[in-house]
Amino acid sequence: MSGKAIVDGNLKLILGLIWTLILHYSISMPMWEEEEDDEGRHQTPKQRLLGWIQNKVPQLPITNFNRDWRDGKALGALVDNCAPGEERDRGHGGAGGTNGGEKWGRNCAPGLCPDWEKWDPNKPVQNAREAMQQADDWLGVPQVIAPEEIVDPNVDEHSVMTYLSQFPKAKLRPGAPLRPRPPQPGRARAYGPGIEPQGNVVLRPAQFTVETLEAGMGEVLVYVEDPEGHTEEVQGAPAPLWGISPVSLSPHPVPQLCVTPFPRFWGLFPPQAKVVPNNDKKRTYSVTYVPKVGGLHKVTVLFAGQNIDGSPFGVNVGMALGDASKVTARGPGLEPVGNVANKATYFDIYTAGAGPGDVGVVITDPQGRRDTVEVMLEDKGDNVFRCTYRPVLEGPHTICVTYAGTQIPRSPFTVNVAEACTPSAVRATGRGLQPRGVRVQDVADFKVLTRGAGSGDLRVTLRGPGGTEEPVTVRDVGDGVYECEYVPRVPGTYQVSITWGGYAIPRSPFEVQVSPQPGAQKVRAWGPGLEGGVVGRPADFVVEAVGTEVGTLGFSIEGPSQARIECDDKGDGSCDVRYWPTEPGLYAVHVVCDDEDIRDSPFMADIRPAPPNSWPDKVMRPTATHRSCCALVVPCCAPLHLTVPHLGVKAFGPGLEPTGCIVDRPAEFTIDARGAGKGPLKLYAQVKDNGDGTFHCVYVPTKAMKHTVIVAWGGVNTPNSPFRVGVIGGLWGAGVAVGVPGGVSVGEGSHPSRVKVHGPGVEKTGLKANEPTYFTVDCSEAGQGDVSIGIKCAPGVVGPLEADIDFDIIKNDNDTFTVKYTAPGAGLYTIMVLFANQEIPSSPFRIKVDPSHDASKVKAEGPGLSRTGVEVGTPTHFRVQTRGAGKAPLDVRFVGTGPGPAVADFEVIDNHDYSYTVKYTPLQQPYGCMSSGPPLESPSTTLCLVTWRCVGVPWQHPEVELFLQGPLSVVVTYGGDPIPKSPFPVTVAPPLQLGKVKVQGLNSKAEVGQVQEFQVEAQGAGGQGQLEVKVTGPSRRPVPCTVGPAPPGGPHPVTFTATEEGPHRVEVTYDGHPVPGSPFPVEALLPPDPSKVSMAHV
């Protein structure tokens, strides 16, 4: 255009000129951050600016300059992600964590609009105005367009581009109010084959990626737990360890952490894994670990000390693959018929030529269960495995035989098991069989479970203290279940005898000590944990005082497994009790006051297996499984019951707050079940269905005292349950108690009582030595103060005195700390947590650390340990099983009776299934100069008892062959401790030489009824000396045969008597091998009978 157009005020041409200048100088020419040198040459200015914005705001799908900006949130994200300034190192507390820190780039210092994701999209003008004002004030980006215009979907793209083109060149002004974004672990995600349920293989690196872009800033920690429960931390670059150092907490400044470095202690087994930050725009980490055993592994991924979405991940690690098509199986245990319940049977699996692989056998009973038949696999050597099992149920069983994870030909096999009466399979359980707790006039009930025990008659007999028979009610409720009950009339010892098919069942007779009727009760117990629960989840109940005197409380759990118990004294006459059952079944929960069971104790809790897709600790996560939730509101009167279906349920409202409820005034709370699907709501109170998936609930307290509300899901308490609600009298008024939800007062200050500590590292039991663990210190509600941590071990753990334990502390951005440590040995540990120089109420934590291994659980078996002995020069082996024994090095030593090595070809093979195969070849140990002693008789050879005299003098009797015959001592240790039965004495026999076995004096013809004699010379044949002779007649019936012991230097005498006429077979075997010439034919003839001879006249 010409200057005349400008002078004349041609607006259209002037605007075109301005746009051309903007396009050329603001968008086309400058090189922006993270842009390749020639990247912009192949793009239009519009594409170039849009690409830069997309790179800066990867969280949002921005594809244009009009519609995608209409809610104002995109502007907030751009301002937050593009606040340019000098390069800043995030340091220890950030996403890079101990890996050296992650740097904010020259144009990446978030904090001007950290809450843009929470902005209301229905307020676009307000959102845009806040973002544009922050950009104007602190980035120097003038508002060349109004907020009302930029959120208009019909806005001119050129205007928006003109405004946005200023951001790449913007600079952050000093003093900008940058606000940190709190970490959001739920937004971190992990993906990759290393966390897939299937597909990972032993000793092959498993890899996956952790993406933390939308999760904020935090430390990434990864723990891998193998099927035996041993945990290893997946390590990144070496991180500093932290001593007892104060950490300052304040609402605004970044905490200053005092670091005391210590050398890293890995323990006995350094982890073969690593976490590597990729330093990319999505803030991803590459994680690699190497599984060492097959089976189900648990991979836990933590961000800022909390599990990310989906963590922990279940990863089933398989063994190295072989060729299952070359494997065969046969034996009586695979025959379609002929096997009987409760009788052991077997079959052999032949794997020769199939390559490396793992043999697996899974037996499914007629009920579809895989845990009722115990399977024992034995390596017989020469690529032969013997599977022995004992079915307990009658009916068709399915046997799946796999090799390297693949079924072999003809698998699965169907085996029909015949019925057998098996009293040992009967189980009886219930309160009426507990040794203590039953009182006079109580209805003592129990159940007898006979399913799988075959056919039989149930008989239950009860004898009272005087020996007289008492009445018992028995009801058959079907499916092999019998319900029994009795009512004891007098105190004393009762005996319950239970027989099935005329035989006593396990533990019968049961002795029950019946106590007198209880007096006034000092405490009462209630809650879902006294009725049932779920395996692996805490079962909770509440114990409350009834009156002013309580006495001494005690708790014990009896059931299918040990259950860890925790008791939390609330300081108000009540305590929360929880226990962790690890196996399903019926548990007896004893609540004892002053060494006496309280009323209704023991409580019988039915613990069920953990259902799939159920997470009581994540109550807002919806699933497709419909279960039930119950709430109990308990003052001194009867409990209030509430049932809500499904998992996505939460309860909130003033009726659940610690303070604020008043006598005779309605207490309200809401149950939100919008993510729970459809189902009935049962409530013994006033309830209103709001019609949107929520329910409004009201209860009216009648006494000025503490009320307790329990909210449980599927028998398991949900987070924050039980709720304790303080009810005050009506004269106090409704506004006396002032506070915020959770009981946190408004205002600043230090509150050590509000510090929360949780995690596996502070659990009282369950920790193992030399395995990494962690716990979290939550100070988010404690106000200002310093945090101090101290960990000590008791004398005798690492030395004769008490010692400090090194640990690593990580500051998260949400006022929480992750503390990592590794216990160097078994014993007692004490963890102290201080806040503002005051010990928090739950400190100190007393931790019991178990040994990392238990040699008493290791078993060794196989032909290489057989007491019958091994042969010189013949390879042999045995197997060491370490399942359940923890992690420790296996050591095998061989001790002979003479100088020199005792074995050759010694090898220990890790089978990666918690077992090892030990292979060796025993060696002969001849002596150079000896003098003979008294002869030592042997069934196969004559050896001289010799004594060592000198070296270098030749033996003067070469016709006598000398061997050092056993015993060989096999010493097996695990973690330095001998395993059971170690050392194993093994007799070493000379090498087998069948050519030296001679059969002498055996005639080819024998007379029926006459004793036939011959000899077997076995001197010098070596081996174990097991001589066997078998004689078979023409009818294939065995003929009695006697083998006598060999005199010193002589042969074995053998005698037999033929009983029928015809050809006989004499089979001679030595150590199970036929001797040369065997079998020998012998023709048996009838003796001559002159009476049957007649003369004929010719």
From TrEMBL:
<feature type="domain" description="Calponin-homology (CH)">
    <location>
        <begin position="43"/>
        <end position="172"/>
    </location>
</feature>
<comment type="similarity">
    <text>Belongs to the filamin family.</text>
</comment>
<feature type="repeat" description="Filamin">
    <location>
        <begin position="180"/>
        <end position="317"/>
    </location>
</feature>
<dbReference type="GO" id="GO:0030036">
    <property type="term" value="P:actin cytoskeleton organization"/>
</dbReference>
<dbReference type="InterPro" id="IPR001715">
    <property type="entry name" value="CH_dom"/>
</dbReference>
<dbReference type="InterPro" id="IPR013783">
    <property type="entry name" value="Ig-like_fold"/>
</dbReference>
<feature type="region of interest" description="Disordered">
    <location>
        <begin position="83"/>
        <end position="103"/>
    </location>
</feature>
<feature type="repeat" description="Filamin">
    <location>
        <begin position="966"/>
        <end position="988"/>
    </location>
</feature>
<feature type="compositionally biased region" description="Gly residues">
    <location>
        <begin position="93"/>
        <end position="102"/>
    </location>
</feature>
<feature type="repeat" description="Filamin">
    <location>
        <begin position="418"/>
        <end position="514"/>
    </location>
</feature>
<dbReference type="Pfam" id="PF00307">
    <property type="entry name" value="CH"/>
</dbReference>
<dbReference type="InterPro" id="IPR036872">
    <property type="entry name" value="CH_dom_sf"/>
</dbReference>
<feature type="repeat" description="Filamin">
    <location>
        <begin position="515"/>
        <end position="607"/>
    </location>
</feature>
<dbReference type="GO" id="GO:0051015">
    <property type="term" value="F:actin filament binding"/>
</dbReference>
<feature type="repeat" description="Filamin">
    <location>
        <begin position="989"/>
        <end position="1084"/>
    </location>
</feature>
<feature type="repeat" description="Filamin">
    <location>
        <begin position="850"/>
        <end position="924"/>
    </location>
</feature>
<feature type="repeat" description="Filamin">
    <location>
        <begin position="747"/>
        <end position="849"/>
    </location>
</feature>
<dbReference type="InterPro" id="IPR044801">
    <property type="entry name" value="Filamin"/>
</dbReference>
<dbReference type="InterPro" id="IPR014756">
    <property type="entry name" value="Ig_E-set"/>
</dbReference>
<dbReference type="Pfam" id="PF00630">
    <property type="entry name" value="Filamin"/>
</dbReference>
<feature type="repeat" description="Filamin">
    <location>
        <begin position="649"/>
        <end position="727"/>
    </location>
</feature>
<protein>
    <recommendedName>
        <fullName>Calponin-homology (CH) domain-containing protein</fullName>
    </recommendedName>
</protein>
<keyword id="KW-0677">Repeat</keyword>
<feature type="repeat" description="Filamin">
    <location>
        <begin position="319"/>
        <end position="417"/>
    </location>
</feature>
<dbReference type="InterPro" id="IPR017868">
    <property type="entry name" value="Filamin/ABP280_repeat-like"/>
</dbReference>
<dbReference type="InterPro" id="IPR001298">
    <property type="entry name" value="Filamin/ABP280_rpt"/>
</dbReference>
